[in-house]
Write a structure and sequence with these properties.
Elements lengths: L17 E3 L3 E3 L5 H8 L8 E3 L5 H4 L2 H12 L8 E3 L4 H12 L5 H5 L2 E3 L3 E3 L5 E6 L9 E5 L7 E3 L7 H8 L3 E5 L14 H10 L4 E5 L25 E3 L6 E3 L4 E3 L2
Parallel strand pairs: 2-3, 3-4, 4-5, 9-10, 10-11, 11-12
Antiparallel strand pairs: 1-2, 6-7, 7-8, 8-9, 13-14
């Protein structure tokens, strides 16, 4: 978990940002460079970016990612990069790159392989199923089910409020990285709130829930919290992630923090 904060980046957290096997990432937020540097991950090692949707806190790091690869870690542009995203995302990210660095990213942008299918598999064997979730429709919101149908499959919710299609995918997985972007008092269902997490986790006790995209500060980091630094009481199968939390699978079960 390279970052676990929501758009407002609570104290102690970079924007929500997950890495799989050291070479695939989910989204590319504004703080992506800081997350990579903190974790000691060379940007040229990243082979795949899975885009959940195009809100700024999920994709505005993309021009900086390409800029660093083009001029520092992959100057010869020999390292392949695949972006898995909905149709239309390519054009929106191209426009973003042109706004950010006119004339500087065209070459490397042209080397990116774009995968827009709902289901697919990478050469390394990592497979995905992309599905629509409940969020702002104008940003094409999707979740991902990785290695569906296999032991240890897992879901990344992207940004989504409670919805049947997301919960159906979670029920078929053994672990989910689930966003919880709103406190209880916010009058919107476009993100999960603590009561939503408690309800779905209690209904699926065999699934390991890892909470990201949170509005809650890392406890004790700052004397005056942005909103709060107190975690809600979650069921036993829920872990409220901190930045740099590691999650592994031993072939039988998920181990959070191992």
């Amino acid at each position: 978990m390279l970052g676990t904060g929501n758009a407002f980046m609570p104290y102690g957290r970079y924007h929500s940002f997950a890495m799989i096997d050291g070479k695939h990432v989910v989204d590319c937020p504004p703080t992506a460079m800081a997350s990579f540097r903190r974790a000691g991950v060379p940007l040229s090692d990243i082979e795949t970016i899975f885009i959940t949707h195009v809100h700024g806190d999920h994709v505005f790091g993309f021009p900086f990612f390409l800029l660093e690869r083009r001029y520092i870690s992959d100057r010869a542009m020999v390292k392949p990069l695949t972006v898995v995203a909905a149709p239309g995302v390519k054009d929106r990210l191209k426009h973003l790159c042109q706004l950010a660095y006119p004339g500087s990213l065209e070459e490397i942008f042209a080397t990116v392989q774009w995968r827009e299918e709902l289901e697919g598999e990478l050469d390394c064997g990592l497979s995905w199923r992309r599905f629509v979730v409940h969020h702002d429709e104008s940003v094409d919101p999707y979740g991902f089910h990785f290695n569906p149908g296999t032991e240890g499959s897992f879901v990344h919710s992207g940004d989504s409020g409670p919805c049947k299609v997301l919960y159906d995918e979670i029920a078929q997985a053994s672990m989910v990285i689930l966003e919880m972007g709103f406190p209880e008092y916010v009058d919107s269902d476009h993100h999960h709130k603590p009561s939503d997490v408690q309800a779905i986790a209690a209904s699926l006790p065999a699934v390991q829930f890892v909470i990201t995209h949170t509005y809650i500060d890392t406890p004790g980091v700052h004397p005056q919290p942005t909103v709060t630094d107190v975690y809600p009481v979650h069921p036993a199968n829920v872990t409220h992630a901190e930045d740099e939390l590691r999650i592994s699978h031993d072939g039988k079960r998920w181990m959070v923090g191992a």
